[in-house]
Structure formats: C-alpha cells, structure tokens
Design brief:
With 253 residues, the protein is an alpha/beta fold. The chain contains nine helices and ten strands.
Length: 253
Amino acid sequence: MSQEFIKVNHITKTYDGEKNILDDLSLTVHKGEVLVVIGPSGCGKSTFLRTLNGLEPIQSGEIRYRGELVDSKSKNITSLRQKIGMVFQSYELFPHKTILQNVMLSPTLVQKRDKKEVEKEAIELLRRVGLEDKKDSYPRQLSGGQKQRVAIVRALAMHPEVLLFDEVTAALDPEMVREVLDVILDLAEQGSTMVIVTHEMDFAKAVANRIIFMDGGHIVESGKPLEFFEAPKTERAKRFLNTFTYETVRKIS
C-alpha cells in the first residue's frame, strides 16, 4: 500500500447549527492517487474539499496530512497549505499583474525563493500548458480556459504534494473545458496526487483511480471508476447516473 497523504477521520461540518453539511465522513488519500468526488449539487463536495487544507473548519473529527493535524487555527496551517494546493473555479488571478507575475507571486513572497529561479520555472510551467506566449499578458486578455490553466500553473509553482480541484470547468464554455481537462489528465499521468470535485462524468472516468459518490454529506459509495459507472452498488448512485444518461438521450433526440 502506498503512503497515506491525507487521513480523514469521522469529520462533521455544520453551518450555524443547522443540518450537517458533512456527516461522520471518513476516507484516506494515498500518494499518487487521483480521487474524484462526484454527487448532486449541495451534497457537500466542495465543502469537503475545502476542509482538506483548512479553508473550512470542522466541528468534530480530524483531518491529518502525513500525520500532521490540519487545523485552520494552528500555527502550521500556512505551511500545510503550501503542500496541499488548491485550484478554484473562479481563477482568483490578480487583474493588475501579468500572467508571469501571478505565477511568481507566492513562490517569491511566501516561500522566499530566488526570483530568477522562480521565473525560469514559471516560464517552463506555462510552456507545458501552452501559455508561454501569454506570460506578459494580463488576465483580462485571456479566455476562461486559459485563465484556468494559469491558475493550475500557479498552484504547481508552489511545489504542492497534493492538488485539490474544485469544479475547475464549471464556469467555462464547453469549447474551453477540454483544454483544462487535458492539463489535469497530464498531471495524473505524471503521478500527481489529486482530489477532484467535478460534474464531468467522462472526465471522472478517464482520470480517477477511485470514485467517491456523495449525497447528503455522506459517502454513499466508493469504488474503481469502471465498477462505479458500469455497475453501481447503491440505488442512489444508479439514480444519479441515470440522470446523465437521460440528459444525453434528450440532447441527441
């Protein structure tokens, strides 16, 4: 068994004392694993993802990264977030800085790395995703797909050991989705450890080592992609997947 990177033990998350958003949720993410989390809107997927690097506090249970407690109030949280990078669906790029400056900002400011070294690596990362020629452009001059690729590069520049992706194609036009998914597929082939929340079922099939299906703050089903998509074990998962089948049929007809 490969090394445990993230261990989630019986966590519970609520907002203002209301119904649990996450309810006694446990799982483990191993080094080199690509875990894809799917489920209906409002089931707690994105909230769960944000708990993994302390962006969302939990009410009970614990999350550990390589044995170290993840706690938004702890002194080590900044260091942990450098190891557990996150890419959001809203890009979060600084509009007044060039693409290269956006990528270089955190490695130089937070990690205090040599500026020339960071610039060289940033340009190489932009080249890998086909955006080297955009390094001196500003975010407003890029398409949505290009901005999302820059957001991924910015996360990679921090040398994270785990990458979290929160619906990174949700705000994109269909034509732009593929270019972002191709970058993530490339990372998976290189052995990156990733936890991905997505509604793109075909992408989930292609990239995942393991599928987690959530509903109502619970893990309803977990399994290998082929098993889950071809022969789901629970009625709830079957109903969820049938929704996508129906939408496909309706579009074709």
